[in-house]
Amino acid sequence: MKGLLLRADQSLEIAKLPQPTIKPKEVLIEVKASALNHREIWIQKGLYPGMKLPCILGADGAGIVIKCGSDVSADWLDKEVIVYPAYDWGDNEQAPTRQFRVLGMPDPGTIAEYIAMPVSNLIAKPTYLSWSEAAAIPVAGLTAWRALFSHGGMHKRSKVLITGIGGGVAQAGLSLAVAQGADVYVTSSSKDKIRQAISLGAQGGVNYREDNWHLQLKELSGGIDIVLDSSPSPILDNYFKFMNYGGRIVTYGSTGSPKTSISISKFFLRHIQFIGTAMGSPSEFQELLNFMEHHKIKPTIYKNFSLDQAVEAIETLSKGHQIGKIVLSH
């Protein structure tokens, strides 16, 4: 089979690889589509701990079950499925185990013609979604769902700020928040991205490169309850200018600055919560897909590539111009 392999010297190539063998509780999936995340770029740069190379990259994927292990019901055969993109979350919904890990390093990932997966990692693909749309959901959608619902407590009329609109998690968060009936505001350095976010249901947006962006946001929104944050400000005190008492800052990344400072007195006197999150549990993944199917939400796709164009697709992602997900059709 073909797959996107990251070699020990951190070079990428579409390589010929042996087809996976399955264990008793696993199935073999013919992957119909996969999608990219910035995780693949960070892995290639060697920025993840415990690197184990070579490895097939990719965490997002959807496909058809073509073979079942000895302990798997034959009813799974020919099922169209979306892959839960991680292993070993555990039984605690509040946080994963230390063994929790995302597909695509150290375990083989989805950017390949086939992948072997435990049947417990599979969820039936909603019929209203194309293969590309289904593959674009897992990592970004699950991260946004846990951040907004499980941590943020988002409800109808919540005022939500989504920073760095354009990326996969931000776009997923926008669609989920709009469907929930929240008032959504965004930040971006791109006027085009802000305009597109408004066309998709956002109330408005501000340019985070402007010195007084936080004051503009306060005037625009009247106060924010939840921040879905890929890039916390180096000075979190700026957030207090626009956050309502009891607000939640839920962060899933550090693309802007790996460190931040905060005034502790303002933090606790305003009852602000600062919450870190990454991915989500299998049950949250099912909740996400149920919600998306109920509202017929489709993820925003920026561009489709073929599997043979996977290296080019990663180069496109690294430029950061996209609005939505980059998908590979297999």
Write the layout of secondary structure elements.
Blueprint: E1 2-6, E2 12-16, E3 26-35, H1 38-44, E4 55-56, E5 60-68, E6 80-83, E7 86-87, E8 101-102, E9 114-118, E10 122-124, H2 131-135, H3 138-151, E11 159-162, H4 168-180, E12 183-187, H5 191-199, E13 204-206, H6 213-221, E14 224-229, E15 243-251, H7 264-269, E16 273-276, H8 282-295, E17 301-306, H9 310-319, E18 325-329
Parallel strand pairs: 11-12, 11-14, 12-13, 14-15, 15-16, 17-18
Antiparallel strand pairs: 1-2, 1-4, 3-5, 3-9, 3-18, 5-6, 6-10, 7-8
Helix pairs in contact: 3-4
Task: Provide an overview of this structure.
By secondary structure, the chain is α/β, with parallel strands linked by helices. It folds into two domains: 167 residues, Alpha-Beta Complex (Quinone Oxidoreductase, Chain A, domain 1), CATH 3.90.180.10; 136 residues, NAD(P)-binding Rossmann-like Domain (Rossmann fold, 3-Layer(aba) Sandwich). 26% of the residues lie in helices and 27% in strands. Strands 3, 5, 6, 9, 10, 17 and 18 form a seven-stranded mixed β-sheet that branches. A six-stranded parallel β-sheet has the order 13-12-11-14-15-16, sandwiched between helices. Strand 12, helix 5 and strand 13 form a beta-alpha-beta unit. Helix 3 crosses helix 4.
